[in-house]
Amino acid sequence: MAIEERLLITGGHPLEGDVYVSGGKNTAAAIIPATILSQTPCVIENLPDIEDLRVSAQMLRHLGAKVNWIPEQGVMEVDASSIDRTDVPLDLCRRMRASSYYIGALLARFGSAQVPMPGGCDIGQRPIDQHIKGMRALGAQVETRRGIVYATAEPLVGGDVFLDIATVGGTINVMLAASRAQGNTTIYNAAKEPHIVDLANFLNSMGCRVKGAGTDVIRVRGVQDLQSRRPYAVIPDQIETGTLMIAAAATHGDVTIHGCIPTHMEALTAKLLEMGARVEERDDSIRVRSLGGHRAVSFKTQVYPGFPTDLQQPMGALLCTATGTSTVVENIFESRFRYLAEIERMGARVRVIEQTAIIEGVPQLHAAAVEASDLRAGAALVVAALMAQGTTEISNVHFIDRGYEHLEAKLASLGAEITRACD
Ligand code: EPZ
Prior knowledge:
Elements: E1 5-10, E2 16-20, H1 25-34, E3 42-45, H2 51-63, E4 66-70, E5 75-79, H3 90-93, H4 101-110, E6 112-116, H5 129-137, E7 141-145, E8 148-152, E9 160-162, H6 168-178, E10 184-188, H7 194-205, E11 209-211, E12 217-221, E13 232-233, H8 238-250, E14 254-258, H9 266-275, E15 278-281, E16 285-289, E17 299-300, H10 312-319, E18 325-329, H11 338-344, E19 349-353, E20 356-360, E21 369-371, H12 375-387, E22 391-395, H13 397-403, H14 407-413, E23 417-422
Helix pairs in contact: 1-2, 1-7, 4-6, 5-6, 6-7, 8-12, 10-12, 11-12, 12-13
Bound molecules: ligand EPZ.
Ligand EPZ binds next to helix 1, helix 5, helix 6 and helix 12.
């Protein structure tokens, strides 16, 4: 029986002081499988110590790679030269969405991949049809039997990939496959998220030729002999930065978040300013202050640089105590509002109609026992608990551990009253 862990948070304490953001979960999720592409050992730095990366390291070891991970230093050394199989186990794939990236990476290196359909947060149907479309456009034979994707390519040949959706994972997977394909690949309608650019920079650091990352047309010239020649540090976590910004505003605090990239945060910054919080951007830090009295705002989630869907949930929690009625439209995933039902137990007044949440702000939330349904829903419940009167119990903390490194230690260092209880 797994030990059930809960977070106990007593609200009402303004967060104050300095906090350092960790390396990006979703950028690391792409760059760790990309180490398979290198003929030489890779050293990846600034990695967060989170569950998803432990799973990815297990996948690499299962394939035969030598992996030395020093979580306290955020460093992972990967030597993929000893990989001797291309099948990824089901139990590991079920635990994260990014397992799908092993299709593109294994196809590119070995011309073969057997990868079960990915797991990940239950926020919608989350098919990978665009990933498969991209692999086929590069000449791969791909079929799915009993929930396992079987892909072969003798060899991968560069081509044009027209993505029907600006899918982050689909863009990443095609970039990985194209990196060692024969010839040039052009990805149209590509995602533009910061971690797409980070992956492109990592591939280029190994000798690949990726141009246009960060725009909706990415061109990749495949290079057979990719070699990592120096350590590569992943970019800071955009979503952790945003979660900490929201928590600072929610508690009417004064927090400076260091080691972040302010330009990645513009959509959220604009909304916090609209609400009446104060946000100051510096080179690699953001200071968020608030005296409360937040105005209701409305927003729609969009692909980057629009408002990130991963911040919809923590922001929705903040809006529960804004003055007025806010409207939130979730355009990316089908069911990403379940956290609101939990915050209703704390006194929030919300209505969800299909992809729209109408949030009528209340003066005060009250503590309750609530349950996280996915990673960012967990973050939303933490924000709500930090605002609420009394001590809130959040269960299913393992969701939060998948994507936030030492969240309770960071919040406690800023003055939050937060502890972890084990049943
Ligand atoms: C990545 O998921 C992130 N996960 C998600 O973060 C993030 O919410 C999402 O990008 C959008 O930014 C990782 O990077 C590991 P998509 P991904 O492909 O790649 C549909 C978090 O909390 N779609 O851009 O799965 C899909 O169903 C997680 O850190 C297809 O229809 O996102 C969704 O509705 C949650 N067919 C939409 O596109 C496909 O082949 C966007 O999905 C692929 C996607």
